[in-house]
Write a sequence for this structure.
């Protein structure tokens, strides 16, 4: 029933570095002409073959994932008698494990429908709109999938055009791109930017209201986690509330009961479901899951050892020259603290260099738009000739949706923060889903402080069969210790250490409130001691950074040993003194002197 196709050499020249991605796209989702009516414009650029890109024999059945087959059955079904031939007969909820090709599962069939019916005589308008939660995902879908498929592979069908709307560009740039340059039939956008344009850009509301035939909401559960449900409801009521002739596809790795209720309100009667909505079943089969309980006073060394193990120390044969590792942190401030330290320690003389021959980058929301795009591009479209390993320190902005190319290992610093057990498991699944994609092998390592998990692995992750690593063995095998005394000169922004320290305190205080994430019986004093030891493990400071009294009172940490209280000016004065290698004695909490000296 299914046949494998090969893109002709002329298309390889057109696509350049995007050629492998597009070749994979069509080898996975192109159907036999007799069984599935793909657009002739798409098939015109392909020729039948029974060999793979390197001459090897390929089974066509194995090239398609289950979710792609099921989605195609719905989205490519023959049209019924209707005035809207672009609209599939039924709406669709598409759920499947991470890395199984959900984006291609909806994008290619819908692009096929557009290619069959849009001609140079068709009215101008946006026929297909894709909503995604982050600007990085907008860039990925728009650049590597929509734009390259519609403008390069379908070069003989030039009337099919695409564009995007997201943050990082001015409203004026958006209007110029949409109205004058691209004039798209396919639009990929974030909810916030779309709503801004609906209220400020003259003519866009009328254009979408008149022409929109297909709406895709990708990463539906991530949208809910990020608080986009009110915006999605607003978009639906504004553009589609009075229309029943718009096809809708909801796409996600997991669908909770709450989201299921939202879906039933917006989808047309008789909608279809594909895939398995269970979070546990959404874990890739070839993913090796590990957990390491670290001692807080050795956290920095443990982090470097695990990274070294995943890059330089990995003895697994791979298809690429350099390995790529994603390290996920709970907050931006915590990320910045350990990112700067890890880079600084790599430069210090005498270290085994856990990141030797490795490029390190950080991705989070506080970077400039140009910097975020540059970092995302490097990891989304890597140079296959690069000899360096690549490690990306990131917050959850990178944990969902993006198809990071060839991520071999995901390292998580503690359990995700969420309000319910289901949300914690969902976030964990999406984090580890950045590796082992498309049937490839991958690994995930969860780092948890031993002092705060006296009962071992949290019970909500018991079904995931995590292998427990021995911290002492990992440290002995993969790391040559660098004395912390040598690291004091490496720190150039003491104020950032204070912010990271404060964020660590707040994070573990929030985790303490959620019994579903931590099955332990610890006191607030244990959290203070654990966080202090984690900061000391970096070799940055000889005593704890100061916190303001209001923050300490809010956490309920007043009077606890190990807390230093200082005003804004005292903290600034101490940061300046540390930078100038001077000594300053601030007003400290009465219980600090004894504990600070004992912990150092």
């Amino acid at each position: 029933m299914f046949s494998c196709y090969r893109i002709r050499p002329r298309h390889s020249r057109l696509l350049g570095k995007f050629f492998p991605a597009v070749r994979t796209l069509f080898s996975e989702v192109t159907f036999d002409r007799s069984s599935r009516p793909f657009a002739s414009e798409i098939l015109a650029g392909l020729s039948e073959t029974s060999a793979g890109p390197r001459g090897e024999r390929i089974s066509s059945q194995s090239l398609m994932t289950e979710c792609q087959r099921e989605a195609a059955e719905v989205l490519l079904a023959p049209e019924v008698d209707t005035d809207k031939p672009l609209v599939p007969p039924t709406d669709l909820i598409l759920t499947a494990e991470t890395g199984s090709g959900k984006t291609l599962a909806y994008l290619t069939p819908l692009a096929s429908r557009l290619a069959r019916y849009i001609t140079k005589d068709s009215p101008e308008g946006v026929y297909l709109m894709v909503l995604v939660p982050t600007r990085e995902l907008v860039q990925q879908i728009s650049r590597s999938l929509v734009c390259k498929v519609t403008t390069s592979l379908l070069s003989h069908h030039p009337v099919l055009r695409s564009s995007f709307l997201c943050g990082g560009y001015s409203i004026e740039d958006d209007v110029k791109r949409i109205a004058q340059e691209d004039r798209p039939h396919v639009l990929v956008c974030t909810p916030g930017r779309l709503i801004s344009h609906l209220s400020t850009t003259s003519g866009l509301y009328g254009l979408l209201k008149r022409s929109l035939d297909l709406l895709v909401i990708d990463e539906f559960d991530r949208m809910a986690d990020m608080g986009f449900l009110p915006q999605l409801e607003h978009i639906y009521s504004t553009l589609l509330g009075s229309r029943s002739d718009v096809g809708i596809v909801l796409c996600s790795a997991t669908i909770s009961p709450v989201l299921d209720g939202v879906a039933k309100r917006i989808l047309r009667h008789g909608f279809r479901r594909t895939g398995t909505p269970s979070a546990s079943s959404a874990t890739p089969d070839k993913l090796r899951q590990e957990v390491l309980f670290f001692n807080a006073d050795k956290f920095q060394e443990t982090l470097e050892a695990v990274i070294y193990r995943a890059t330089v120390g990995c003895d697994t044969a791979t298809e690429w020259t350099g390995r790529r590792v994603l390290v996920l942190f709970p907050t931006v401030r915590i990320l910045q603290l350990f990112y700067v330290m890890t880079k600084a320690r790599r430069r210090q003389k005498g270290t085994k260099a856990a990141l030797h021959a490795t490029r390190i980058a950080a991705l989070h929301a506080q970077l400039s738009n140009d910097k975020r795009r540059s970092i995302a591009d490097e990891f989304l479209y890597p140079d296959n000739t690069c000899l360096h390993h690549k490690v990306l320190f990131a917050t959850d902005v990178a944990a969902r949706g993006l198809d990071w190319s060839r991520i071999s290992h995901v390292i998580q610093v503690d359990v995700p923060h969420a309000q319910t057990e289901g949300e914690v498991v969902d976030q964990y699944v999406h984090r580890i889903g950045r590796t082992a994609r498309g049937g490839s092998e991958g690994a995930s390592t969860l780092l948890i402080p031993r002092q705060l998990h006296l009962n071992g692995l949290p019970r909500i992750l018991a079904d995931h069969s995590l292998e427990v690593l021995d911290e002492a063995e990992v440290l002995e095998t993969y790391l040559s210790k660098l004395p912390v005394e040598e690291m004091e000169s490496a720190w150039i922004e003491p104020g950032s250490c204070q912010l990271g320290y404060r964020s660590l305190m707040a994070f573990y205080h929030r985790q303490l409130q959620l019994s579903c994430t931590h099955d332990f019986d610890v006191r607030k004093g244990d959290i203070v001691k654990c966080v202090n030891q984690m900061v000391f493990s970096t070799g940055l400071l000889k005593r704890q950074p100061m916190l303001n009294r209001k923050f300490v009172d809010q956490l309920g940490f007043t009077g606890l040993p190990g807390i230093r209280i200082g005003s804004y000016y005292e903290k600034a004065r101490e940061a300046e003194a540390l930078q100038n290698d001077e000594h300053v004695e601030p007003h400290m909490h009465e219980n600090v002197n004894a504990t600070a000296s004992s912990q150092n």
